[in-house]
Specification:
The protein is of the alpha/beta class. 26% of the residues lie in helices and 21% in strands. The chain has 6 helices and 9 strands; from the N terminus they run E-E-H-E-E-H-E-H-H-E-E-H-E-H-E. The longest helix is centred in the middle third of the chain and has 18 residues, at 89-106.
Amino acid sequence: AGAAALLIVDRDSDEPPAATLGAPGIRIPVLAVGAAGGRSLGARVELEVDAVSERRRTVNVVAETVGGEGDRIVMAGGHLDSVPAGPGINDNGSGTAALLEMADALGGRAPGARIRLAFWGAEELGLIGSRRYVRELEPDERERIAAYLNLDMVGSPEPEYGVYSDTDPGIERLLHRLVGPRAEEESTGGNSDHAPFQRAGIPVGGLF
């Protein structure tokens, strides 16, 4: 629209908001500041932004056990990427390590339903990997997925055990029973890779 730059002011917090531009190719400088920074702005602002906005290639890695009873599939997933400002070993090296441990314990086979493990690409940029995966599922393939369990940040030196509270009630009760009374309710909203599955009508749950 002819703007030279975009400056986003969060009026509710003095901390700059953590945000990601939804698509690459923005050709003007974009910055976000907190409320205090916004109040200090004058009528004229000069911005200098050192950033890159371009398309990059990322991948999902999906594995599945051999055999299984019936056509139903139980999925578990976690994302492969992290953010520069966060502890990547926690977010989300812990989730992918848990998936690898599950795969090793299963040994390629599992009693009951077939197990599918997913390692998602580009979660931090907007759930790109999991959204594309769910979007490209045929209707009959979606129906086969009985449940999806999300593992995003499941390890910490000083953990607080959490179970997703805004997901499928049956899965939530099962996870509470497995984790025990120390499990706390964790409201995640649509902020991780379970969200595309939930929007598609697939029962979801998660540990935190």
